[in-house]
Structure formats: C-alpha cells, structure tokens
Amino acid sequence: MMMALFWFSKWQRDAFIPPFPLVVEGLTFIRQMFELVFLHGRNVAHRDIRWGDVMMDRSLYPNGMNPLINFIFFDMVLPSEPKHLDRIDVHRGILWFINDGAPTILPEFHTIDEETGETVLALHDSFKADVLQLGILLHFVFGKSMKFLEPLFFSIVEDPDQRPSARECSAMFEKLIHNLSRGRLLGMRRGNYEEYSCLERVMDQIMRNIKGRADHLRLVVKAIVLNRGRSF
Q1: C-alpha–C-alpha distance, residues 3 and 140, integer Å
Q2: 230 Cβ contact list (under 8 Å, min separation 6)
Q3: How far is CA 51 from CA 133, 144, 151, 176, in A?
Q4: Is 63's pLDDT higher than 80?
Q5: Do 167 and 184 meet the contact criterion of CB atoms below 8 Å apart?
Q6: Cβ(154)–Cβ(136) below 8 Å
Q7: Tell me: the pLDDT tens digits for 95-152?
Q8: I need a labelling partner for 157 at 20 to 30 A (CA). Which of 116, 143, 178, 224 fits?
Q9: Which residues contact 216 (CB under 8 A, 6 or more apart)?
Q10: Residue 25 vs residues 80, 115, 155, 228: alpha-carbon distances, Å
C-alpha cells in the first residue's frame, strides 16, 4: 500500500493543486476535461467522474509531491507545501481520468440516485451520466467564479433526455469563451469559499485572500512581461 501511494506521489497529482488564480488557467483545465468527447467518440464511458478521479502529470511539481494524503513518511522527503511552477509556465499538463472502482461496483448509480431521485436499479445512459457528473464537478469548482459559464452549467439538467452530449457541451463552452478579452482571461478567479462563523477561520480566510490577490498580481505581471495569457 505504501509503495502504491509513493508511486502516485511521484508521478501524478491532484488536478486541483495548486489552485487556479487566473481565469485562463481554469478555462484551460475545463477545455482539457472536455477531452471526454474523445472517450465517448470511441464508445467508452468513464462512469465515475469525481474529484478524486481527476489527476494530472507532475509537470507543475518537477520535484514531486504527495497530493492526496500528507503522511509523515512523505514529509521526511518532501516539504509539506512543495514548490511548484506557475500554470502559465507549463504549456499543458497531461490530464488523467482514472477509475479505481471494482467492475462489479457501479458508484455512479449512487451519485445519479442522489442527484435525480431515480432508483438504483433503473437503466441509465452511461454517456449522459458522465456529462452529469462532469457538470456537477465543474460547477462545484468554477460555478461561483465564472458566471459567464452559467448557460453551460444550467444546460446540464437532471433529465438525461434533455441533457446535452459531451460534444454539445464542449461546443457550447467554446462559444461562451470565444470573445473573452485578454483582461478577462487574466482576471482573478475567486474560489468557491464557504462562509465561516469561527473568528480563527475568518482570519485564515482573510490571509488566504490577501495571498491570493498577491499571487494574482504577480501572475498578471508575468503574463504581460512574457506575453502570455492571450489565448489558451
């Protein structure tokens, strides 16, 4: 088990680490997620798209990291917050859809049941289920920070018969972002932060916001100086 975890820490990472300070970074990620069209075009359904099954290669962390569990064993080798490159410095990471579920277990049925109220034993279109799961994931991560994508998010409805295909969602995404200005692309992407009542957490969130704005300003200056962020 330890060897398996070490392999993951060395070669892959959680796709949401580090965050996406710039809008263009988040849009680049979403575009890569719509490579789901490639799978569906070859009659392959993932059937378990969720937070823990979206990984990327180590290009942003050339020295390695353990993205999922912070064991003391790894802290002896790697810092708790390993240094990473900026996303605009890496042309494109490699996106991985992984599926570690057993073939006799269909976890997406449980997810669909929670979202739509359908019975677990009902027949489902696995391709439409992929679209629903991807839509839920993208809305959770980007829904509050990219309001201009709301037509896409709202089109992924509960009724599978009314739900667009992955190809249709990808086409809608490209249409929505087609005329975004460079200023919009380099804008600060605000995270989906929760409301806290605890003073300690409020202060922690204030410090995170200050750091986030400083990181955003640094990246904007870098993008302008290096002439990046015009497109993706």
Answers
A1: 32
A2: 182, 185
A3: 10, 17, 22, 24
A4: no
A5: no
A6: no
A7: 555 555 444 444 444 454 555 555 555 667 889 999 999 999 999 888 888 999 999 9
A8: 178
A9: 21, 22, 188
A10: 24, 29, 23, 11
The strand ranges marked E within 4-81 are 13-14, 54-56
* Residue (of 63, 20, 23) closest to 230 by Cα position: 23
**Residue whose entry in the numeric block shows the structure tokens 């009314």:** 162
Q: Determine the 3-state secondary structure of 14 from DSSP.
A: strand
Q: Which CATH number fits domain 4-192: 1.10.10, 2.60.40, 3.40.50, 1.10.510?
A: 1.10.510
User: Which residues lie below 8 Å from residue 38, measured CB to CB, with a gap of 6+?
Assistant: none
Q: Domains of the chain: which residue ranges?
A: 4-192
Residue 84, C-beta contacts closer than 8 angstroms, at least 6 positions apart: 18, 60, 61, 65
45 contacts 129 by C-beta, under 8 angstroms: yes
Task: Give the sign of the dihedral formed by CA 55, CA 59, CA 61, CA 62.
Answer: positive
Residue 69 tokens, joined? 């569990």
Range with the lowest mean pLDDT among 54-63, 70-79, 215-224?
70-79
Flag whether the pTM goes above 0.70: no
- Residue type at 9? S
Contact (Cβ atoms closer than 8 angstroms) between residue 169 and residue 156:
yes
